[in-house]
Amino acid sequence: MLERILSKEECAACRLCCKFDSYDLWQTPVISQSLASRILQEYSPEIRFIRRDEHFLMKMTREPEADLYYCPLLDHERGCIMGDDKPFDCEIFPFRVMNLNGTLVLTLSPECPVVNSKCFDDVCKAALETAGYAFECAHDSPELVKPYIEHYPILAVEESRYGRQFI
Ligand code: SF4
């Protein structure tokens, strides 16, 4: 989906979005009940989940010598063991669907070093290409929506009063 700005090779060489410190554990992927079952059956029966209302987060273990948590679905040699079947948050990263005063917006996480090195026009085009899908998923699964964070640039807005429009 983000081929315009991210190649598989670039993601494989980076994997920054698959590790977290204690300040950004909130960014760990939101997992639905059905996805949790699929992960256990098809990818890793070892994974443990933490329930958050109607969804789950994956339990992560802190590295012994650092404030660092690796996603349990990350294979350090091969990358994400889910391949193209990743959770929504990972699928659209570094974009995030956020709620700004009741309106869905597609924002850009400042943390992806690969996308930060790309032409901003291409990043904006990729955001517009992603927005329709991302907003549909957010309507189907509201738990995917995160509260707006002030410094995150907004690249697309859903204007629901007038139909779905993007800027
Ligand atoms: S699910 Fe896959 S892509 Fe997402 S954080 Fe875990 S290892 Fe990375």
Write a short abstract of this structure:
This protein has one domain (8-157). Helix content is 29%, strand content 20%.
Average predicted confidence as pLDDT: 93
Show unreliable segments.
none
Mind describing the biggest β-sheet?
4 strands, mixed
Ligand names: iron/sulfur cluster
Structural class: alpha+beta
Specify the helix fraction band: 25-40%
Q: How are strands sequenced across the largest beta sheet?
A: 9-7-8-10
The total number of structural domains is 1
H-E string = HEHEEEEEHEEHHEE
Portion in strands: 15-25%
Q: With helices defined by DSSP (H or I, 4 residues minimum), what is the helix count?
A: 5
User: Whole-Å distance between the termini?
Assistant: 19 Å
Based on CA inertia axes, which overall geometry fits? globular
What is the total tally of β strands? 10
Please tell me how large the radius of gyration is. Answer: 16 Å
Description of the molecule:
The structure is a single chain. By secondary structure, this protein is an alpha+beta fold. It has one domain (8-157). The protein is 29% helix and 20% strand. It has five helices and ten strands. The protein has helices at residues 8-14, 33-43, 88-92, 113-116, 120-140, and strands at 19-20, 49-52, 55-58, 69-70, 74-75, 79-80, 95-100, 103-108, 146-147, 154-157. A four-stranded mixed beta sheet has the order 9-7-8-10, with helices on one face. Strand 7 and strand 8 form a beta hairpin. The longest helix has 21 residues, at 120-140. It is globular, with a radius of gyration of 16 Å. It starts with 7 loop residues before the first helix and ends in a 10-residue tail after the last strand. The model has no long low-confidence stretch (mean pLDDT 93). The structure holds iron/sulfur cluster. Residues 17-18, 29, 71, 73-74, 80, 82, 86-87, 90 line the site of iron/sulfur cluster. Iron/sulfur cluster is lined by residues 17-18, 29, 71, 73-74, 80, 82, 86-87, 90.
